[in-house]
């Protein structure tokens, strides 16, 4: 018997490439982690302390479809690498950080840019522009034991066959071990946590019917249709 007064919410899971599913606990997203993207968003690209915002676990969506969200007419793609943790803790050193990584995947940080911009002007949080339903299309997680730890290699995004974003994972200002270490100083990380590692320059809008294809070496490609 359960003492719950309402039905317990389901644990949200995303697929693992080799079989099984990965239960998601939290989703941390780093902002402006590529210098060229910082510039295109009107910010100084020099290395400064990282900042993070969060999406909800069930924003991660492996369906291959992205429903255009309501109350926005300017929805942007942001191509990202997903980092999935198998363990966590606090005050994790940079040298030990990769020991906590289960694997890597592909994800898009879809953004209601017009609503995000309104919140910025008002000095309010961004969640209305970032953490809406199905705002993080994603692919399966590939185990680090099979693909290794990814710290370099091209990341590209095409929309309807046209290249929109091109970069390299080695261009990240804050590398994966540093992100994990920094987050662990402020949060208690745990198995099931996911980190989206930032996007290269070239972000832009999508429309219904568009097809986005995100690719990273060793992680294959992620095809997402805007519906």
From TrEMBL:
Q: Name one Pfam family in it.
A: FAA_hydrolase
Residue span(s) of domain Fumarylacetoacetase-like C-terminal? 27-226
Residues of the signal peptide: none
Q: SUPFAM superfamilies from the xrefs? A: FAH
- Please provide, alphabetically and separated by semicolons, the GO molecular function terms listed in this UniProt record: hydrolase activity
Record keywords: Hydrolase, Metal-binding
The record's annotation in InterPro entries points to:
Fumarylacetoacetase-like_C, Fumarylacetoacetase_C_sf
Tree of life domain: Bacteria
The entry's protein name is: FAA hydrolase family protein
